[in-house]
Amino acid sequence: MQKVMNYTSKDLAKKILVILFTGLTGAVGLNLFLIPANVFSAGMTGIAQIAEHLLSNVGLSIDTGILIFLLNVPVFVLGFIRLGKSAMILSFANVISMSFFTTLVPVGQVTDNVLMNAITGGVMLGIGAGLSLKFGFTTGGLDVVSLLLSKTTGRTVGNYMMLLNGVIVIVAGFFFTWESALYTIITIFTMSTVVDYVHTSHQKMTAFINTGNSAVMIEVLSRELLRGLTVIPARGGFSSTEREVIMVVFTRYELYTLKQVVADVDPNSFTNIVATDSVVGSFLTQDEQNLLKKSQIAK
């Protein structure tokens, strides 16, 4: 069981690295590509860019990184209520990282090609947002709202981000130029596409785990994934050794957790992971999983 205990500390260390990486890539995408080209990002970052421009017109100078932090504060109140304390603590740390690196990285121009700036900035921000969602937290702002809607309806996070960020395009066109608005559409589309490519929590997968330590594997998987497990008796075709194969259906979002558990419990196991087209029957959403976890803790 010592290896299972180490899983938590390893997981936290990786998430901290993701938070730092997300802050850096977001700051680079913003300060070196979008801001110099007057192209706006998605979510609270884009709103912060617009707010910074409008405030500068009335003589107030507030750094975009500081505005990102301030605008995200009320959103985290909603996140604590609906998404849980642990996810929001990491998400809040993610926003702090983004704000810090945005104030640290100087604004500069890599290229004067506006289209290239729009695409590259969207890719940089999309990588950070997608990785954050993949590791169980968000970049704050409209990501929280998009994630809540995605969990409720099963539609992709990227689609909701595209829909909710439409208001940024309208504001960018109204207060600035419609050319900026058009390039903003390209940035938001690029970012949403990258998020769906990296995150893809709506996709289902099935794992067949061939292990010689099935008792512990079942115990830990049941606790960490809260998914139904099917144990299939098996025999090695070459060695004739009696084994057990554990079958579990899960989301792409949970793939990271499954791999970590399997590697810690039985490094010598053999796992076959295949894409699942659809699931018929009971399949817990993440909100239902959270409720089940709370009921288990209460017991």
UniProtKB/TrEMBL annotation:
Bilayer topology reads: Multi-pass membrane protein
Which regions span the lipid bilayer?
A: 12-34, 54-81, 88-108, 114-137, 157-175, 181-198
Please state where this protein is localized.
Cell membrane
Gene source species? Enterococcus gilvus ATCC BAA-350
Is Metal-binding one of the keywords UniProt gives this record? no
The record's section on PANTHER family has: UPF0750 MEMBRANE PROTEIN YITT (PTHR33545:SF5), UPF0750 MEMBRANE PROTEIN YITT-RELATED (PTHR33545)
Pfam families given in the database record: DUF2179, YitT_membrane
Residue limits of the DUF2179 domain? 227-281
Protein name according to UniProt: DUF2179 domain-containing protein
- For the keyword Membrane, the answer is yes
Record-linked InterPro entries: DUF2179 (IPR019264), N-reg_PII/ATP_PRibTrfase_C (IPR015867), UPF0750_membrane (IPR051461), YitT (IPR003740)
Assigned keywords, A-Z: Cell membrane, Membrane, Transmembrane, Transmembrane helix
Q: Which GO terms describe its cellular component?
A: plasma membrane
